[in-house]
Write a structure and sequence with these properties.
Shape: elongated
Radius of gyration: 19 Å
Number of domains: 1
Largest sheet: none
Order of helices and strands: HHHHHHHH
Number of strands: 0
Helix content: over 70%
Strand content: under 5%
Distance between the termini: 22 Å
């Protein structure tokens, strides 16, 4: 089986998704391109191994990540009020009427919602990467999946951000560690 395209797409995608978070202006576009390239890489690995669960788990993780962002924004808007969110100049009036405590509570609730969805997303990502590790014999995928999961769990105490950064760096290395070709073992059931 040929994994050379998955290796390139996944490696470049992981790099772009990492640097997308720090590059001003074009960073969001780079991150989106990176995530799309990783999706393509995982799909190619899934197709080559004939294991649809690899892509399915990764895709569910991706969707849960998007849902996490959307639900977090919606919950924050719902708590502080749409008028304040879309008219930042009225923030001073809001603070006079409600207090800074109300705003901080809204941020905390939004962060907890994000955290829960990120944990669910990380479970599916871990499952996908564990399967990739099993087929490709690149155990770094297993480590990456585990670190994404631990990072998501520990986001609440903020150390998770560092763990997720380490996972992202290992993800780049894991994709570039994929073999060009892989033999699939036929199993009899």
């Amino acid at each position: 089986m040929n994994l050379s395209q998955a290796k390139v797409y996944g490696g470049i995608g992981a790099i772009l998704s990492l640097i997308g978070g720090v590059v001003p202006y074009a960073g969001g576009v780079l991150a989106i391109i990176g995530v799309i390239l990783i999706l393509i890489a995982v799909k190619k690995i899934s197709d080559e191994t004939r294991d649809e669960a690899i892509f399915k788990n990764y895709f569910i993780s991706f969707i849960m990540g998007l849902v996490a962002i959307a639900v977090t924004i919606v919950s924050f808007i719902a708590i502080i009020g749409m008028d304040v969110f879309f008219h930042v100049d009225k923030l001073e009036e809001f603070l006079k009427a409600h207090s800074l405590v109300h705003l901080i509570a809204a941020l905390i609730i939004a962060f907890i919602v994000l955290w829960i969805f990120e944990i669910v997303s990380a479970v599916f990502l871990k499952n996908s990467y564990y399967a990739i590790a099993e087929y490709t014999k690149v155990d770094l995928f297993r480590t990456t999946g585990l670190l994404y999961f631990i990072g998501a769990l520990t986001l609440i105490v903020l150390i998770g951000f560092l763990i997720l950064l380490i996972a992202k760096i290992l993800e780049i290395i894991a994709y570039f560690s994929l073999p060009e070709r892989m033999e699939v073992e036929e199993t009899m059931k």
